[in-house]
Amino acid sequence: MRPCMTKGILGLLAELITKEIDNLNQLEETTLNSDLSQGYALKELTELLILPLTAHSALVFRVRAEGADGAADSPTDHPFCAGVQGYALKELTELLISFLELESVRSRHKAPLLATVLHGYLSLRRLVIQRTKLVDETQERLLMLLEDITSGTEAETRQFMAICVETVAKYGRSDVRTPVFIFERLCSIIEPELNELGPFLLSLEKDPQQEDFLQGRMVGNPYPSTDPGMGPLMRDVKNRICRDCELVALLEDDTGMELLVNNKIISLDLPVKEVYRKVWLPSASSDTEPMRIVYRMRGLLGDATEEFIESLETKTDTDRDDEETYRMANVMSDCGGLQELLRRMEYIEDLQRSRPLLTVLLRLTGLCIKTRQNRAALTRPELRAVAVMLRLLALCLKADPELVAGPPGGPTVTQQLLQIMAVVLAEATSLDLDEYRRFASTCGSVEQIRLLLSHVHMAQSKGAGALLQQLMRVLPFLTFGSEEKMRLLIDHFQPVLDFDEFDASQPAESAALLESLCALTAGIETNCMGNQLKDMFVAAGVVERALTYLRQHAPPGKKALLNTNDEQWKSFLSRPALSYALRILAGLATKHEPTQLAVAAESIPIIHRLEQVSSDQHVGSLAENLLEALRTNRQVGAVGSWGRAQMWGGYCEQYSLEKKRMAMAMRKHQLDALGMRANDKGQVAIKSSVLRQLDDISDEQGLTCVICREGYRFQPTKVLGIYTFTKRCPLDDAEPKQRKTMGYSTVTHFNLVHVDCHMAAVRLARARDEWESAALQNANTRCNGLLPLWGPQVAESAFAHCLARHNTYLQESTGHRDVGYQTTVHDLKLLLLRFAQERSFSDDSGGGGPQSNIYIVPHLMHMALYVINSTRIGQRELKNVTTQLGAASDRWVETSFEPDGPLFWMAMAPLVLAPDGWRQLRLRCLARLLVLAQARHTRPGGGRALTERQPLPWAVYRPWAIFWGLVDGLYTMVLSRAAPEAGGADWCAALAEYIRHHDQALLEACDRLLRHYQQELLPAASLAEMLDVLGVLAEAGDPDTFLREALQQVP
């Protein structure tokens, strides 16, 4: 293979491919039909493909011979004359591709072949008359080859970009199709495009809360995005809804209807595809799920609280480093690409024919100016960049608006061009003065400035506000450095600077010109070039006219504070020209000392009074902007926080004193209304006897509703409930069965609510699910249950009804149909195990911690106690607890793996077993849990006997010892005051009554238990330390002996 490569077979193939393509191009230009016999001259070359690759030396010889002599034969004299146009070209291409499939050949020779492949592909794209199926196939193969050989390192990509620029320069000015592909390719390299979205579905749904107000319904859900009226903008979707539902009044009103996606209000100016991509897809369950759009009347049920999406630019998009992101664009200035872009812009004469080319030129130029290197290159006078764009701008301004329309929701072609010009012109202002003057000499003539000013009137008449703003942004730059241009610009606005005449007639044309002048003055750069233009504005009397207008019509007055009820001030504030005068002065005064001094000389008191005005014309804000512009001048703002005392003496002091006097008067008035008074020291005291009676009113103590903030003190008969989250789970993970016994586990954020308040909130939020609405009250924590509390004065019937509702909630959320006191005890057991094993409480619910969940323990106990007491089974369960916890040691290992094992009965104990009974059994219970830990660690699959009796590390026993410590802590810290003398059934009833009547005491006791758990149980590093902190060390004896004896007494 190597000898063939060195003899240049690839170069020869490239030459023959180019020759064949040139032949097709010549036929394209000179004939009106496709000659089916074309390509015979390369017939022998195609036959070479069937030769073995080992015969490459002979192949090269034949290729060279055919290349030299084949043209002498006549296509019609050879039996291959039945060939089809492009056959030889296709086979030549396949032969070239077969060589480049070898990695060693491709890595060495792809760079020299890149220009040939690119030129070939672009030439074939242009064919129309000579296009055949084989030509199409060859074009596709060349494109695939082009993709393959251009996907490499950054250096290879830069080389390809340079070749693209060289290639496009070969095509004449009349070719407006071929450069489009090259420039699009360059755009995709500089800024890789996102994958194109295919068709998707939209589901248009009415807001359920407005069913009674909006007629009709979108019955075709889901709608394909390709349906008429489903884009390109969200406004089109809104109009489709209005037409289908016969909401004619809202069809032309963009403020009457809101569209919501993902519970966010979407601007009607946003493209539907981008909303689907950036708002809907990130949270959709699948890519095929229809985008749900909810429509509703704006303000019908109050002000909206949802987020308003006005722009889809993310923080990442706006904060990225353009120099790094668009670094590949710098190749354009290195290889002459910017010159080629400008040359192609110069070639454009017919916008209709060149529209695709112009669009891609502006996009590529917009990407290039993202980097400083390219911006600096475009300011070089020899490129005449601004002059070229000015000529193109004139064409765009004269063109039909539909011809220069931009993408849906995007800027027009004219606006894109103005944005590019503004960036280049702003960059030029950083040049040295001499360099800028040379640059300014290429920024258009006086006639071009006059032409742009004439288009200002046209933009005003067409209502193109955005275009007008951009024109006013660019115009000052174009005049910098030329007094003639600046004078022309100022003279253009002189006729409308008679503010009194404008107040009298208010012609629409004059208002539009004044609006343009305000935009122009606000956009003048704050550098030496901009100050030169502002100097000319001052010399032309613009500033003096505006100040004279203010001084002549402002009512006289010495008070610093404005009396807005004064008729003279009302008349002054209603003058139409006032806002324009303030805006012009603010624009010219920004960092321009002559204007600042002129304004500060006599007019600051007037402007300062205007600053206090609140009106529809925003006069107060405009006056404030003008004062802020004056603050930057040290001569104007040398003293005081307001920065203007030096210019008007004691005016600021007078203003402050008057404001203070009015504030004190208002304070006295408000205090009198409240029955209070302030003494000389400013201290507030009560002077009303009625207010003194408020001392007897105390705040709500204990449990309170998160909605109405009232508890048992002010709403004693209402049922309070705890928001809970319950999840289906196994009762014991160690159960040695393939299908474990299922139950449920409850956690909470311990937010309480009146059941009535909860139901009322659900009714008001009809658009949301019950628990979605409840999550808002539950600190944005998931919930699916409402555990009721039986308050001291709550009727039993009301509590029982709410408890039945809670059981229904449990059944719905867990699928567990047998909800009783046993499942509640299992729930309590699993909650205590979360503490013992230090597992998170908020993995599933998203909120709630140890404190919230320790608070719910007494109320879970009360839920089970209510059933036990109602069914009078307390004595039976007491017998079961004492029997199970006092069981013989021969069953300890076997029951360690049962869901209803020692953990369950220890969780049941506080409900039915009095503290005395617990003290008698607690060490036996501890020994049993130590055996349970040994058994589960050494025999995870279950069994009847221990396989290892040697004590294990403390970490094995620690969680179970903590569980025992929590149960013991419930007795000693939480329930110790329930009924010390009660026992048996009396304990169940007494405990239920204690929990019912002592909510505040229980909260405090649970806090003590939590501190005990966190500060004493968790830090315990050994069994001895655990027994010590629990106060049973003396009773248990030596801890090591206690552990060994426990392990030895079981089978």
From TrEMBL:
Span of domain E3 ubiquitin ligase UBR4 C-terminal: 218-1031
UniProt signal peptide: none
Source organism phylogeny: Eukaryota, Metazoa, Ecdysozoa, Arthropoda, Crustacea
Pfam families (alphabetical): E3_UbLigase_R4 (PF13764)
Key word Zinc-finger present: yes
Ranges where the record places region UBR4 E3 catalytic module: 576-1050
GO molecular function: zinc ion binding
Family from the record: Belongs to the UBR4 family.
Nucleus among keywords: no
Name recorded for this polypeptide: E3 ubiquitin-protein ligase UBR4
Keywords: Metal-binding, Zinc, Zinc-finger
Gene transcribed to yield this protein: UBR4_1
